[in-house]
Specification:
heterodimer, A: 111 residues, 4-stranded antiparallel β-sheet, 0% helix, 58% strand, B: 112 residues, mainly beta
């Protein structure tokens, strides 16, 4: 059974903190994705990676960076968290134009 | 502006067939159309995927017209457990190249 795991289900951070969200997949997928999900806005792509050490900006990359040092792991970094980054963050892996498999999500609250 | 459009919400009763349509005028030539189901506090879960005409699996059918500018997810005989948000995902072409775009999601409420 396919599996995408995220390091935390819930996270509370303070404004200005550096935040790491980690995602691990066990399906040997080349592509991994980070989305954020907000009420009324649906899912929006932040960054994706198509190979180790490779990354591409999605629709809303501002305020975020990513790291892909190993194929199975894709990290989302908030360099200096702000309150407008309070959201649900979803990681996915899969094919660019085909099925993506999602993790359970991390609900981040920035105070 | 490339985008996908779905109804925001739909209501149904147990045992009925539900059809949810997604409009995607700028779909890329080679891209698939994928539908996901999401329950509260969970990540989206794959339901079905197609390129053209009709695709059917054990949970749903997907109807795609020849021009591929829309697609319809069909859920036969829904039950209370089908209450969820349904998203379409397509690759689109715009003046910046290509991107994947999720629809805004359709909140389906199934009543007894």
């Amino acid at each position: 059974d396919v599996k995408v795991t995220q390091s935390s289900r819930y996270l509370v951070k303070r404004t200005g903190e550096k935040v790491f969200l980690e995602c691990v997949q066990d399906m040997d997928h080349e592509n991994m994705f980070w989305y954020r999900q907000d009420p009324g806005l649906g899912l929006r792509l932040i960054y994706f990676s198509y190979d180790v050490k490779m990354k591409e900006k999605g629709d809303i990359p501002e305020g975020y960076s990513v790291s892909r040092e190993k194929k199975e792991r894709f990290s989302l970094i908030l360099e200096s968290a702000s309150t407008n980054q309070t959201s649900m963050y979803l990681c996915a892996s899969g094919a660019w134009r085909e099925t993506q498999y999602f993790g359970p999500g991390t609900r981040l609250l920035v105070l | 502006l490339a985008k996908t459009t779905q109804p925001i919400s739909m209501d149904s009763y147990e045992g009925q067939e539900v059809n949810i349509t997604c409009s995607h005028n700028n779909i890329a030539t080679n891209d698939y159309i994928t539908w996901y189901q999401q329950f509260p506090s969970q990540g989206p879960r794959f339901i079905i995927q197609g390129y053209k005409t009709k695709v059917t699996n054990e949970v749903a059918s997907l109807f795609i017209p020849a021009d591929r500018k829309s697609s319809t997810l069909s859920l036969p005989r829904v039950s209370l457990s089908d209450t969820a948000v349904y998203y379409c995902l397509v690759g689109v072409r715009d003046n910046q190249g290509g991107k994947l775009i999720f629809g805004q999601g359709t909140e389906l409420s199934v009543k007894p």
